[in-house]
Predict the structure.
Amino acid sequence: MSRTVFLINGPNLNLLGKREPEIYGIETLEDVTARCTALAQDAGLALEAMQSNHEGAIIDMIHRARNEAAAIIINPGAFTHTSIAILDALNAYDGLVFEVHISNVHKREPFRHHSYVSARADGMLAGFGVQGYELALRRAISLLG
Ligand code: DQA
């Protein structure tokens, strides 16, 4: 069985640390990825991180996960609230899926309250800042053993 975790970030998350820091904080996606990579390595897992502003690229990555990853940690950004196609791709994947949102989407505008991805996710974290990625990874590590 694969010992790789895919960390997938959707649109605008490449601007983490620069975009609306009062909501998303000042740490960059590179900071988050470096911390998660180290945490995964300590647990004997590999981490492959990707970010894309394009829905199709995210779907292609989820298809790759079917053969290459034991778990997906995904922050789909605004696609969370719109993308049945990402949900369908995740439904075609058998491994663990954890959904992460940096902000507490339920405390924000009503259009952020619904997530298509939550219909598939094994767990979801919202409002823990960028620490949510590490918390999700810790959960994946404990389940993967
Ligand atoms: C987000 C919340 C989404 O509503 C938003 O579109 C994002 C980021 C979060 O991490 O809090 O891009 O997924």
Notes: Residues 12, 75, 77-78, 80, 101-103, 105, 112 surround DQA (CB under 6 Å).
